[in-house]
Structure prediction request, 993 residues.
Amino acid sequence: MKIDRRSFLSFVIGGAAGTALSPLPWKLIDDSSIWSQNWAWTPVPEKGEITYVNSTCTLCPGGCGITVRKVGDRVVKIDGMKGHPVNDGGICDLGAAGIQLLYGPTRVKTPKKKINGRWHNISWEAALSEITENLQDLRTNGLPHSVACICDSDRGTVPELLNRFLTVYGSPNFFQTPSIEDNYELALYLTQGVRAIPGFDVPHSDFILSFGSGLIEGWQSPVYMIKGKSAFKQNGGRMQQIEPRLSKTAAKSDKWIAIKPGTEGAMALGIANVIINEGLYNRDFVENYSSGFAEWKKLVIDGFSPSIVSKITGSEVATIASLAREFARARRPLAICGRGAGKTPGSLQDFLAVHMLNALVGNINRAGGMVAVTEPDYINWPEAEMDDIASRGMQQTRIDAVGSTENTQARYVLNRLPEIVNDAAESPIRLLFVSGCNPVYAMADTQAVVKAFERIPLVVSFSSYMDETAAQADLILPNHIYLERYEDVPFARGFPKPIVGLTQPVIEPLYDTQHTGDVIIQLAKEMGGTVAEAFPWDNYQGYLEETLEELASLLEKGFRLNDEYSSSNGSGAFETESSKFEFSNSEIKALPPYTPVPAQGDESFYQLLLVPYDSMRLASGYVGSPPFLVKALEDTILKGNDVLVEVNPATAKKLGLSNGQYATLSTPTGSGRVKVYFFDGIMPGVVAIPRGLGHTGENKFLAGKGLNYNALCAPVEDPATGLDAAWGIRAKLAKV
Amino acid sequence: MVIDLDKCVGCGTCMVACMAENNVPFREDDTDKLISVAWMRVYRLTNRKPYPDTEECFLPRPCQQCEGHAGHSPCVSVCPATATDYDMDTGIVSQIYTRCFGCRYCMAACPYHVRQFNWWDPVWPDGMERSLNPNVSVRMRGIVEKCSFCIHRYQLAKEEAYAEGRREIEEHAYQTACTQACPAGAITFGDLNNPKHAVHQMVRPDLKHGGKSKNPKAFRLLERLGTNTKVYYLSSREWVRRAGDNYLKNEGKVKHT
Prediction:
C-alpha cells in the first residue's frame, strides 16, 4: 500500500479520534491521578495496639496530669488526665502539642560539642571527661566558686541534685530562673514568717480582684486557673481586672478597669485606704490574727488617699471607692497579682500591697482565699561531707551578691548576672550549667545576655532541644524529654494543696540522650573524693526510688495529693515573731517605701510605653511554641514573619500610622520591624507586643517569626529585692 | 454541640487538640487563614466600641453540621461527587476524601468557612509522621476537608456498644477531641434529640421551628439562613448574640427566643 499525504493524515486523525472515543485516555488520566495521590509522601499511619500511660506534664510548672495515647510504640495523642486534682481532664495548647516536641525537628539527638563555632557530635564519655577535666582544673586552682548553675526551679530531685553537686564541689552559685513566685514567696515570708508556696483557691472564691494577672492566660497553673475560673463563674462569682490593656482575662471579666501601666501597687493601696477608712475590713482577722495593723494603717491613710492614687493610676476616685466596697463586701474576696503569665518577678511592694488586701478581708489560709502551701518535704538526704576546697568555695560571696548586702531579700538574682559578667575583666563564671530553662531567650536585654554567655569559657546545656541557650553553649548533654524519663514534679504552681506528681517514661528514649540526674551522678563519681561520696546512688532511678518511698503508688496513680491539708489561721499558721499575720514589722519597715517602678528611656524621645502580654497560644517558657501552636496563633498577632503590635487607633493616627502598616518599633535597648494593629482595647500611648516570638535558630516553624520582647527591654532592679521589676519600657513607633 | 461563650477563654486548646487528633497538617507559614487548614478555628469578636468600652469575645467554630431542610445542607446540595453527605442517623455531615475531586463548590456554598482546600500535599518533617493517628486518614492535595465531629470516635463507641450488646451509645463514650480537651469546660457534646443528654437540656431545641433553641441565651450562627445547624452558642451578652447573624443597620434589637 502506498503511503501518500492523504492516507497518512487520515490515519493520524482517525487514530486520534478513535483513541479519544475509547476509554483509554480517561482511564489513563484517572489512573495517573490516583497513582500520584498515592505517592509515598502522604504517610499512612501504622496501626497497632492502643494503650494509655498516665504521667505528669513538665512543660510549665502547672503540674497537670496527662494521659498519653499510644498506638503500638508510637505516641499519638496527649490528653488531660481525668480525675487529676489539678486539671481533671483538661489540657492546654502546649500540653496537647507536646508530641510535636517529642518527634519534632528541634531535638538534640546526641551530645554535641562546639568547635570553632560548628557543632560536632561527640560520645557521652568524651563529653563527661571534658567537663570533669575542667571541673578538676578549677578546683585545683582554688576557683570552685566560679562554677555556676541556672535551673528552672530549686525544688525537686534534679535541681536539688545539681545544687548538691555545686555545694560539695564548692560553689554557692546556684540560680533559679526568676518569676512572680519569688515575690509571692517573699511576701508570705515577710508577713507570715513561712517559707511556703502560694496557693489560690480560685474555684471557691466569689470575687476576684486581679491586678493585671492573666488568670486565664497562663498565670500559675494555667489549666487549674481556667477550670477554676469556670467553676467560680458558675457559682456566681464576679471578677474585675485592672490593667492597661484588654487582655483575654480582662475580656472575660465582669469589669475591666484600665490604669496606667506599672501602677497596680498604688491601686491596691488606694483600695486598702478606702476599706480602712470606711471600716469595711474583717475585724475578726485584723484584731485576732494580725499585728502591726496600726502602723500600716497610718502609712496607707496618710500616703494613699483615693485622690492621690487617682493621680498615680489615672483611675477615677469613684472607681477606686466602688472597687474597694465591692471587694470588701464579698464573702470570699481574693486579690491576685503578677502581670500576665507571671514571667517577670515585678516589684515586691506591689505584691505586699495586694497580699495585705487579702489580709484586710481575712481571706488568708481558708477556702476561697490565698493559702500558704507547705513546701514538699520528701527530699531528706544525709548532710554531705565537704572537703576544705568546698568549704572555702562555699564561703565565697555569691556572684549576684545575695546574702552580702542587707537590702537583698531574694535568694537568687539572676538578672544581675549579665552585667557582672560583662563588666569584669575576666568572667567570674568559668563554667556554667544550664538545666530546664532557656535564659538566653527569656532574660531581659538579649544582647547583654548573649555577650555574657560568650564571655563564659565553658557553657554546658542539658537541653533536649536546640534552643537559644543550647545554641550559645559549648557543650550540649541532651536530657530525655519529659515523655521519656522519670522525674518528680514537686508542686503545681498556684494549686492550694500540696501535691507531688510523677513524670514517667511513656516511650523508650528515641535518641542518644541521658537523664540529667544520671549525668550529675556520673560526673560526681568521676570527680571522686567527697564529691563522689555525696552521691552514693548508682543511678537516678535508684536515687528516685530511695527518695520517693511510695514510688510504686505514684507510678500507678500519677500523683500524691494531701487532700486532708487544710491551712488555718490557728496556732502555727504564722511563724512570725508575734505568731500572727504581720502588716508591719521591722523587716517590712526596712524595705524601701512603695514607689511606682519607672519605665526606662527618655520620655521626650520615646513617647510611648511598650508592654508585653502573654497568650496561651504562645509558649514563652523553657520550650518554644511547637508548630501546632504557631498555626493556632491569631492573624492579629502574627502575619507572615511579622509580629503585629497593638496600638490604640487614636495614638496611631497621631503618629500617622494606619492599620496593617509596617513600622519600626524602637526602645533604648533595641529595635525591629513590626506591623501596626489597631486595637481599641488598649490605653492610648501604650503599645503591646506578645511574648514568645522572635526565636532564633533553625526551627523553620518558629525561628525568625516576629520579635522577642526581651531583645527590646532591659531589667530595672527592684530596690527591695534586686529582682527585675520592669513592667515595660519606653518606646517609639515610626513609619518605616 | 453547645459552646458556652461565657466560659470560652480563647486559649485555642480545642484547635490544637483537633489538629493532633485529626492529623491536620501544618506549614512553615500558616498565617494566611484563608488557605491554612484548620477544622476548628477560634474567632476574636469585638463590640467595636472605642477605648475604654471595648469588649471582646472568643468564638470557636467547628463544622456547624447543617441539616437545612430535610438534610439539604448548603454543601451537600452542591457536591457533584457525592463526597459529602448528611447522615440522618447522626446528624453529621460527612466528607469522603477519596471521592472529592476538588471542585470546591462546597467551599463556596458553606456560609461558615469551615471547609478548606488542600493546595499542597501535607508534609511532616522527618520523623514527625510518627505522631499521626491511625484512626483518621491523612488527606492528600487537591481535596477539601472539614471537621467531622470526630466521627471515628463515634464509630469506635458504636463498635464498643455493639460488642457489649447495647444499641445505644452512652453520652460519655462519644465526645469530640475539642470537647475533651477544653480546659474551660466551654464545650458540651451529646445527642441533641436525647432528652437525657446535657446538650438537649441546655438548648431545648424546638423541632417544630427548625431546631431553634428555647434558651434565651442560645443562638446559632447565621440562624436566619435556615441552615439548621447542630452547634449552639450560649452568651449572656446581647452584642455577642447579635454578632452571630447579619442584621440591617436599622433593624432594631432582634430577640432570639
